[in-house]
TrEMBL record:
Matches recorded under Pfam families: DUF1501
Ranges annotated as spanning the membrane: none
Cross-referenced SUPFAM superfamilies: Alkaline phosphatase-like
Annotated signal sequence range: none
PANTHER family: BLL7424 PROTEIN, DUF1501 DOMAIN-CONTAINING PROTEIN
Full protein name: DUF1501 domain-containing protein
Species per Swiss-Prot/TrEMBL record: Planctomyces bekefii
Lineage of origin: Bacteria, Pseudomonadati, Planctomycetota, Planctomycetia, Planctomycetales
Length: 458
């Protein structure tokens, strides 16, 4: 909780009654820090490198935790033997030749607003979210500090759109299985870690028991202390910090971010359209909660000026049990997913946001073509699928194809680097010429293996 009226010990209070300890809490604004150490002044330093962002382009990234079964969702093989095809049947979308699972009737009605990538290759084989969030294979060499995730790179290159909103917000729930979680800002450091407005942190985004006038008084006091610190800092490392703190105060005194996360301000009909879930129920204990309202919150955050929003949704790793175990779970998850994802895409179009906001939905790998009575569909790195929407891209198409059992890509293999290059280009960041300096002073490109934007989409 942010406490501007800290307790005063004898001899430790200033003339306005604020304690030195309370002042330091204001000065660093660490009360708003996340578990990863993010603080408002440091994350706002992104603006110094590229100036205040003026583009409203944005990305919502949805991670389906645990690896969704591509051949039961968006790449069905009804002519394959039963042990490969499973019980689901394909249905037509509103785009001729684009068929998806019968459990997704609402998505089928908007096939013209979707792109299905059926040939995503180069997947890693373990339950590890790294590649989903930064596009880099976790087994390959990495620079000191590790690769930054996508939102952190965007924060570093573009900075915030407005001081009232951070450039990168994560709505991902912390999973007990560590590899399911976001990898973090890597060598960019905590200044470009995502803001995580989950749990009690949300309470820190408003002024609790403090008027704006009193906050302004403390800001003047903070300036005096900062000037003193600069005077005694021979290296001048404090130079410019007041600029970032000024922006941080702007975020603190604005209700924009807090209101975006307050779904009670949304039209109840819209909330009902997405559906709701219990954020305290983690699927299979170590997955993420099945919370459709996260997609609504993501849209509201984009409207509030956030560039990148990431979220994790449910758990898609259905190991063990009989042949029917995996399909019983699909019957449970698929209709809810169909409802909330279609609501998000429709919402973006209805609000005139679809050209500016791109959506990417994927997991860490595909699933085995053959269904096992012991493990259902196991891990399958040979091929994966992804769904994209929005971003002003050319949708209403399927990119790539797999063989008759959905086991290998046989046409137009797509890499993670290509998908990420497409997202960067959508944001106005040229991947061929943009580099970020790592901790050793070496320039690093934004995507792996020289990936280029997908010509089918842009």
């Amino acid at each position: 909780m942010l406490r501007l009226l800290g307790p005063s010990a004898p001899g430790s209070a200033f003339c306005d009654g604020i304690s030195r300890r309370g002042l330091l809490n204001i000065g660093t604004l660490t009360a708003l820090g996340t578990a990863g150490g993010w603080s408002l002044p440091s994350i706002l330093q992104a603006a110094e490198n590229a100036g205040q962002g003026r583009s409203a382009k944005s990305v919502i990234m949805i991670y389906l935790v645990g690896g969704p079964p591509h051949q039961d969702m968006f790449d069905l093989k009804p002519e394959a033997p039963k042990e490969f095809a499973g019980p689901w049947k394909p249905i037509h979308t509103n785009v001729p030749g684009m068929d998806i699972c019968e459990a997704f009737p609402q998505l089928a009605q908007m096939g013209d607003k979707l792109t299905i990538i059926r040939s995503l290759v180069g997947n890693q084989a373990d339950h590890d979210a790294i590649q989903v969030f930064n596009g880099r294979h976790p087994k390959l060499p990495k620079p000191s500090g590790g690769w930054p995730q996508f939102g952190s790179l965007v924060s570093r290159v573009l900075g915030p759109i407005t001081p009232a909103s951070p450039p990168f917000v994560s709505l991902c729930y912390q999973c007990s299985h560590g590899p399911y979680n976001e990898p973090g800002p890597g060598f960019l450091g905590t200044a470009h870690a995502p803001f995580r407005p989950m749990g009690s942190t949300r309470e820190d985004m408003v002024l609790n028991g403090v008027t704006l006038d009193r906050l302004q008084d403390r800001r003047a006091l903070l300036r005096s202390v900062d000037q003193l610190r600069r005077d005694i800092d021979a290296s001048m490392t404090m130079a410019g910090m007041d600029v970032f703190t000024e922006q941080a105060m702007g975020l603190l005194t604005s209700s924009r971010l807090a209101e975006a996360l307050d779904l009670s301000r949304e039209d109840p009909a819209t909330v009902a359209r997405y559906g709701t879930g219990n954020p305290n129920v983690f699927i299979d204990d170590n997955g993420a909660p099945r919370v459709p309202q996260s997609m609504l919150a993501a849209r509201r955050l984009i409207e509030a000026g956030v560039r990148v929003v990431t979220l994790n949704y449910s758990k898609w790793d259905w190991h063990g049990g009989s042949y029917n175990t995996i399909f019983n779970r699909e019957k449970e998850d698929f209709p809810i997913f169909d409802r909330c994802l279609s609501a998000l895409i429709s919402d973006l179009h209805e609000r005139g946001m679809a050209d500016d906001c791109a959506v990417i939905v994927w997991g860490e790998f595909g699933r085995t073509p053959k269904i096992s009575d012991i493990v259902g569909r196991d891990h399958w790195p040979q091929v994966n699928c992804a769904v994209m929407a929005g971003g002003g891209m050319r949708h209403g198409q399927v990119i790539g194809a797999t063989d008759r059992i959905a086991g290998e890509a046989i046409a137009r293999p797509v890499t993670f680097g290509e998908v990420y290059a497409t997202l960067f280009q959508h944001l106005g960041i040229p991947v061929s010429s943009t580099t970020i300096t790592d901790n050793t002073g070496r320039p690093q490109y934004l995507v792996e293996d020289g990936g280029k934007p997908m010509p089918e989409l842009v």
